[in-house]
Amino acid sequence: MKSRSSASLFLLCALIINNFTDSSACDFTVAVGSPVTINLGLDQTDELLWKHNSQRVFKGLVITAPTKLNNVKLTTDGSLIIHSVKMKDNGDHEFEVFLSNGKSKAKKSITLCVHEKLIKPTVDITCIDGTPSISCEVEDKTGLTFSWYKNEEKMDENSASLRNIERDQDYECAVEKPIPSEKSNKFRLSTTKYSSACDFTVAVGSPVTIKLGLDQTDELVWRHNSKRVFKGEVSRLPTKLNIAKVNTDGSLIINSVKMEDNGDHEFEVFLSNGRSKAKKSITLCVHEKLLKPTVDITCIDGKPSISCEVEDKTGLTFSWYKNEKKMDENSASLRNIERDQDYECAVEQPIPSEKSNKFRLSTTKYSSACDFTVAVGSPVTIKLGLDQTDELVWRHNSKRVFKGEVSRLPTKLNNAKVTSDGSLVISSVKKEDNGDHEFEAFLSSGRSKPESKKSVKLCVHEKPPKPTVDITCIDGIPSISCEVEDKTGLTFSWYKNEEKIDETSASLRNIERDQDYECAVEQPIPSEKSNKFRLSTTKYSSACDFTVAVGSTITIYLGVDETDELVWRHNSQRVFKGLVITAPTKLKNVKLTTDGSLIINSVKMEDNGDHEFEAFLSNGKSKAKKSITLCVYEKLIKPTVDITCINGIPSISCEVEDKTGLTFNWYKNEKKMDENSASLRNIERDQDYECAVEQPIPSEKSNKFRLSTTEDEEELMLNSSPHSPTPLQTQQT
Fold this sequence. Notes:
The chain is mostly beta strands. It is 6% helix and 44% strand. It folds into 8 domains: 1-26 and 637-733, Immunoglobulins (Immunoglobulin-like, Sandwich); 32-115, Immunoglobulins (Immunoglobulin-like, Sandwich), CATH 2.60.40; 122-188, Immunoglobulin-like (Sandwich); 200-287, Sandwich (Immunoglobulin-like); 294-360, Immunoglobulin-like (Sandwich); 377-461, Immunoglobulin-like (Sandwich); 468-534, Immunoglobulin-like (Sandwich), CATH 2.60.40; 546-633, Immunoglobulin-like (Sandwich). Strands 1-8-7-3-4 form a 5-stranded mixed β-sheet, with no helix packed on it. Strands 16-23-22-18-19 form a 5-stranded mixed β-sheet, with no helix packed on it. Strands 31-38-37-33-34 form a 5-stranded mixed β-sheet, with no helix packed on it. The longest helix has 18 residues, at 2-19.
């Protein structure tokens, strides 16, 4: 018997492991909107109980099902039809049929796998190991198999890519599984060029002229990506499509191309007698019009180099100019640049852009260096030696900002003024002020004033928010890091017990317990210091003061009186400032208790983080100050117990959507076990097991799970779908 039991366990594990990758797990695999017919042998007088993922869908006489469920009907052979499946119908469906005397007549479980209907794929060309190959493109290829067709005959290939393609042959592809799609358009690799090459490459807003030899009485059929754009007499084309017209030489002109015009266009022209006159297919490649590029300085192999910067460089070629003469270089970067020479760049292909501003690497410093590095909202003072009667010309990134008498500057530009020593002050810098500023002043005689000719580079950054200190492990040792949204190009300062440490990186290793650590951003723009962090001998000081689920209530003792003034900040942003008595009126999720505590009634995810409270007496003197860290989590749904195999032995696991950072409780026959991992090995038969999430937020217990010993039940398991209810899976209590 022991040998038989071991063999059964082995077969069970083999079955479970196999079913993780077995697509046959689905009894029905359908697209949204498809019908599904389930043979149940129903009679009109039977009673039907239908559950979906353990939730009751219907209970009642079969004859009433179509009335109560408007997406269901019954056939004459007793089958049930769901006539238009939705995504929410995905999962396990259980049906039990009872005779009018209450006796069970039939029982059936099915797994319904529902997928979004696939759009028509496209064929794209790529290179694999230097050889032209084609790929079948859909938005997400995960779990898909494909079919390929060569000259309309199906090929023995089901991957997403096809290598060793032949020229002058027609290729098509389609998604085969899990849901078939329609075929792509035909693709041909011609003997002269790729059929995917663009016949017209244009920017948005450009016109396109296509020679078709049209006469006004001809009939034209025009398709774009297989969809009909126009069908009718040529003379009526400009009336129906206000973007198109026909030239005197019979060409068709699209006046102003849009992004949605990108793709394949097919034209067929018929004479008035219905006979085909001309046929033409073109590929129109439409790109957004490129902005003017900028030249930036970088280092390649330790040497100063310059790069041509645009938002996205994919597939672009560039042209470079030195002292206005075109250079033999089409990459995005230029090495071995010379000092005191003017460089410009432009995008050349696929759509030409205008040239960048000139860039010069001077003999004293990089022209890209910042003369002023400031935060948004800061003032900047530029010494120009201006007099009120001088004429000033001010340009920003080559665009004129101001031209006129200096005395009129504050009137025309309300963010600028001139000081008594002739300096120009920009009182509150904005992000758009970033870049190159050129100033030139002229005397009233019109002569240039040399001391007032100046170029400055102003580098403007957003003011960094107050950083936070977080704990992590590096090489197994607790370390702390200074956290801001984007650390690119930043240097940091660290403080231990309020004294600055010699460390500028974002992380700090070998921290000591029971010491106060703070960090701040130092360059390019200093930030305020973070809250203090202490690694205590018992727990991290960064631990949460309150760990709660969304919707919970929090009580924070502050000892405030109604006449006190309260300032409350959340992650450095002010939440409330005013008399304590007005807080419940202004913040409807807040109330005060008689002992001076503040209650947040229903916590939200956005309440997560650091909260600082400071109360002041009516005379303005500080009365109380408190900081808390509130850790808010989504409320966990009830977990489920699932069976798996670890090293060939049946084990059970506690399943929730995301297990990261969770600890678990296990119960055997309703008694708590000494186990907090997500899996439980060496489980015993005929015992009831339950699990729950313990930390950080407790969940309710799962349904009970029992591994049965009866031979009939083992045989049933080996003949059941992995998703069908069996004695080896959850038993509802």
